[in-house]
Design a protein that fits this description.
The complex is a heterodimer.
Chain A (H helix, E strand, L loop, with lengths): L2 H23 L3 H29 L4 H24 L5 H27 L3 H25 L12 H20 L4 H20 L7 H23 L2 H25 L3 H6 L19 E2 L2 H9 L3 E6 L1 H6 L2 H13 L3 E6 L9 H8 L7 E3 H7 L5 E5 L29 E6 L19 E5 L2 H16 L1
Parallel strand pairs in A: 1-7, 2-3, 2-5, 3-4, 5-6, 6-7
Helix pairs in contact in A: 1-2, 1-9, 4-5, 4-8, 5-6, 5-7, 5-8, 6-7, 8-9, 11-16, 13-16
Chain B lengths: L2 H21 L7 H11 L3 H9 L4 H30 L10
Helix pairs in contact in B: 2-4, 3-4
The chains are: A alpha/beta, B mainly alpha.
Chain lengths: 461, 97
């Protein structure tokens, strides 16, 4: 090995180490940002080192340089623009989009390597996994963005098509590995993989999508590692494996928080997606509150727990919420936020929104602590949350059975801000809404919070 | 199996184990940024896009390089920027209280 080669290998080793450290630093909110910067810096070094290797080796044709630089410029520009401009509520679909193109790139590397060296196990796996995550992640992104129906779309014969595509992938792979089939088999594999990605993700409902995105993220990491094997590049292998493994664990953690087995999530067909504006009448009567009713309860409460949900995100009402919270705190109330692990569209989604509104993260209580203190809580303010506070979860036999919930019904009084009696993802009635200590405030979260805040101000003036 | 492949396999397995370990204690509040961060890391595929340029030839080859590097660059640049955006919001409380 020449001195140059040794230098590059050592640089790659430092880069891989930095990736591991960067991920490790993500364990705490205090060091998380630093971890990401470290990882980003290492990435830049890795790309620079690889570019240096290209120059050193020579032999890259001028048009290849042009294609490379033009592609990189275009991709960087698009990525930068999207990442900067897209609102926080659209984060999940953006992450899924980036995942899609990452998987696509890995698959294309496999295709190129096939052209150079023919088929091998890494190449076949690379194209297969990369293809599935490319189309699967695009569908996932589309579902969350509303371009594709969010509800689980189960087409007749859908399972059969999926099985057929899986078989096609297996056959094409077998042919390629045995040395037959050539380009046609590779094309068949790629097409089958793309199709499989579509049929795999389409029947999955919007609520399960975050888990699926995490799973697809892990897949892309694995595809990248396979590309690394094909190219004989150690940093791709390491980074790819890191992402594959950490993505797999994260998927498991997310599924556990929802108390849904991963197999059931992937099989799909659950829930109703985002039933916005679904006017479904509830069983039992509900108490409706006016702004003044709500204001009286809140103004004289000494302990308030806010339970945010997707409705908060959809209405972009996090700033209104913080304003109300600060008003109550100035009156001496203790305000905390009980964030359910899967409230909103993604685990941590609520946390990101509240942080954006300037809510200090020390006020975000995790579910166990919040539940323990719930009997001493004067008012539980549920903002746009549904399934995560449904007491039906405590009984077996319902769509949300077994899921850990925030015990809003154990507070002394409950105020629920919601547009209508529409169902959440689980598609069932929420027993909290008809409980005797619960009052419903039917309005969009932003409007509701603004009205209640104004009413509190009038009351205490 | 040659030495290189064995070495690659060793690195692969150890990296998997590292990946499992490192994620162990992430608080739920950081799940989404972590997913985004992991997404950015597989943007290393950009290095792979560079490498295939070494042997790229002909219109098809150049087009492949173009698309691969565009995809990879979007993953890596977008990924890091969006993760940073999520994380910059986790600041400790300013001012007194």
């Amino acid at each position: 090995m020449s001195a140059f080669d040794i230098a590059i290998r050592l640089v790659y080793l430092a880069v891989a180490t930095s990736f591991v450290l960067g991920l490790h630093l993500m364990n705490s909110p205090v060091t998380a940002r630093r971890g990401n910067l470290l990882s980003g810096g290492a990435m830049a070094v890795a790309v620079a080192a690889t570019a240096a290797m290209l120059v050193h080796e020579g032999g890259v044709r001028p048009w290849a340089w042009i294609a490379l630089l033009a592609g990189a410029a275009l991709g960087s520009g698009a990525g930068l623009m999207l990442a900067r401009r897209v609102p926080m509520t659209a984060m999940p679909q953006l992450v899924s989009l980036f995942n899609a193109v990452g998987g696509g790139a890995a698959a294309l590397i496999g295709v190129h390597d096939f052209g150079q060296h023919g088929a091998s196990l890494p190449v076949v796996l690379d194209v297969l996994i990369g293809g599935v995550t490319f189309s699967g992640s695009l569908i996932a992104s589309g579902k969350l963005h509303g371009l594709v129906p969010g509800r689980p779309v189960v087409l007749p014969g859908g399972r059969a098509v999926t099985a057929l595509l899986a078989a096609a992938m297996a056959v094409a792979s077998g042919l390629l590995l045995a040395g037959h089939g050539g380009v046609v088999a590779l094309a068949a594999l790629a097409v089958a993989a793309l199709g499989f990605g579509v049929t795999m993700v389409t029947p999955i409902g919007g609520a399960d999508m975050p888990v699926v995105i995490s799973l697809l993220n892990a897949f892309t990491g694995t595809a990248v590692a396979m590309a690394g094997f094909a190219l004989g590049n150690s940093v791709l292998i390491t980074a790819g494996a890191l992402v594959g493994a950490s993505g797999a664990i994260l998927t498991k953690l997310m599924a556990e928080a929802m108390n849904r087995p991963i197999g059931a999530i992937v099989a799909g067909g659950f829930g109703t997606g985002d039933s916005a504006g679904d006017q479904v009448p509830g069983q039992g009567s509900v108490r409706t509150l006016s702004a003044d009713d709500a204001a009286i309860q809140l103004a004289y409460a000494s302990k308030v727990v806010v339970i945010p949900g997707y409705g908060l995100a959809a209405a972009q009402a996090q700033h209104q919420l913080r304003e109300l919270a600060e008003l109550l705190e100035s009156r001496g109330a203790e305000v905390s936020y009980a964030v359910h692990p899967v409230a909103g569209r993604m685990p941590g989604h609520m946390n990101v929104l509240l942080a954006e509104a300037g809510v200090p993260y020390e006020q975000l209580a995790d579910m166990e602590d919040a539940n323990a203190a719930m009997p001493q809580t004067d008012v539980a303010l549920v903002v746009g949350a549904n399934d995560v506070v449904n007491p039906a979860a405590r009984r077996p036999g319902t769509a949300v059975s077994g899921m850990p919930i925030v015990d809003a019904d154990k507070a002394r009084s409950v105020i629920v801000i919601k547009r209508s009696m529409g169902h959440g993802y689980a598609g069932i009635d929420n027993e909290l809404y008809t409980a005797p200590t619960t009052g419903m405030y039917f309005a969009d979260a932003k409007k509701a919070l603004a009205e209640i805040t104004a009413a509190v101000k009038v009351l205490v003036a | 199996m040659n030495t290189q492949l064995l070495a690659d396999l060793t690195v692969f397995v150890l990296s998997l184990l590292l990946g499992f370990e490192v994620i162990g204690r992430v608080p739920t509040t950081l799940h989404t940024p972590l997913m985004s961060a992991a997404n950015s890391v597989h943007g290393i595929v950009l290095a792979g896009a560079l490498i295939i340029a070494l042997t790229a030839d002909g219109v098809l080859g150049y087009t492949l390089v173009f698309v691969t590097s565009a995809f990879a660059a979007m993953n890596v640049v977008g990924g890091y920027v969006v993760t940073d955006r999520m994380l910059e919001m986790f600041r400790p409380r300013e001012g007194r209280r």
